[in-house]
Specification:
With 265 residues, the chain is an all-alpha fold. The protein is 67% helix and 0% strand. Helix 1 packs across helix 2 (16-47) and helix 2 crosses helix 8. The two termini are 36 Å apart.
Amino acid sequence: MFSGITSMLNGLTRDPGGTIITIVYLLVCILFSLILHECAHGYVALKCGDPTAKWLGRLTLDPTKHIDPLGMICMIFLRIGWAKPVPINPRNFRHYRRDYILVSLAGIAVNLIMCVLSLIISAILAKVIWKPELVSYLAENGDKDLLINIYQGVAANNVYSGQFSELSAYAQTPWLMYVQRFFLMLAQMNLGLAVFNLIPVPPLDGYRFLDQFVFKGRLSLNPQTMQIVHVVFLVLCLSGMLSGLLTTVNSAIMGILTSAVSIII
């Protein structure tokens, strides 16, 4: 986390304007992604018979109802984080195990949908941003996905990082790179949230899914063990030890998604 803070402070010194834009983009992407994730849990729970989230005012786009300060800080500096969990009462579900699984996966599903939609918009923009010669060259080599894959494509990574000057010679509408940057960041943010929440550690969605789908609801931890798990997991998040593994998984999934979406370019 401290390296992330140092990097941002250095950015404010070198390029204050560009760093401020990056921070604004990050905040919008984080808020949008986290809020939709939590609202999805509450909405699906409501459809399954549990109105708890609605009664407590959690089916709203108001950030103050959803944001966890520590989770927000981790999202900004580590790109992994969380919001306040939406309260649910599984006793209200019409079909306990089925509905519990649906509610657990709702946030992840919404994040994956947002990731794909953002990549589709990024691909449409890429077709307009780059000169036809570049697009044709990449198409001949089957590498069009490099224009939207931030993990493997130099052009996509530079746009994602805000390094527009290095790409201007290849662009026919350079100003659209500012727009594409937002959607590339939104795609990466939502994919990161989906993968992070699949980790089978309480209170993440992956734990609830594992408990109900694999262990039939028998995977229970006593309060003391739960607290220890929370502390250890928080330390792993804050130390950045999870970042390498999550980046590897995100990169692999992004490669699959961008290969499919790149047919638009």
